[in-house]
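> example.struct
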């Protein structure tokens, strides 16, 4: 029947839309960090303005604050937690829904504070995807070297 076709077609269309949205988000995010994305990082219970740049060769993000630069390799990001995530008890400040926290391999947590919920969601999603992609790429390079 017409409805069944519409229903099955809808599922496919929404998956395609999701991919298109994702691609749009990634493009926008990469463009922002190429020129330097202005945001805040939570540090010692205060918010510091910072710029987030793309590190050379797409390997990670470079965080530039008050005379300090810190490089975060995508492969060192274990997880990206949105909002006031569970387990945030160990974080010495109050997180809210505009926060996105990068949990790094060495146990360091870096919390960014974004300007809107939409921006936080996009930031979280994009950094998650980029860290996964880089890990896959590096794993593949490793395999090729070993062959």
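> example.seq
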């Amino acid at each position: 029947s017409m409805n069944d076709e519409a229903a099955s077609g809808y599922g496919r269309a929404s998956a395609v839309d999701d991919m298109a949205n994702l691609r749009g988000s990634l493009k926008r995010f990469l463009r922002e960090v190429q020129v330097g994305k202005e945001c805040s990082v939570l540090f010692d219970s205060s918010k510091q303005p910072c710029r987030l740049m793309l590190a050379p060769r797409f390997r990670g993000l470079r965080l530039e604050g008050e005379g300090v630069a810190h490089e975060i390799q995508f492969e060192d990001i274990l997880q990206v937690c949105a909002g006031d995530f569970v387990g945030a008890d160990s974080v010495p400040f109050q997180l809210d829904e505009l926060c996105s926290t990068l949990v790094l391999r060495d146990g360091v947590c870096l919390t960014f504070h974004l300007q809107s919920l939409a921006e936080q969601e996009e930031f979280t999603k994009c950094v998650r995807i980029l860290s996964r992609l880089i890990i896959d790429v590096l794993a593949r390079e490793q395999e090729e070297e070993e062959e």
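> remarks
The CA atoms of residues 11 and 51 lie 39 Å apart.
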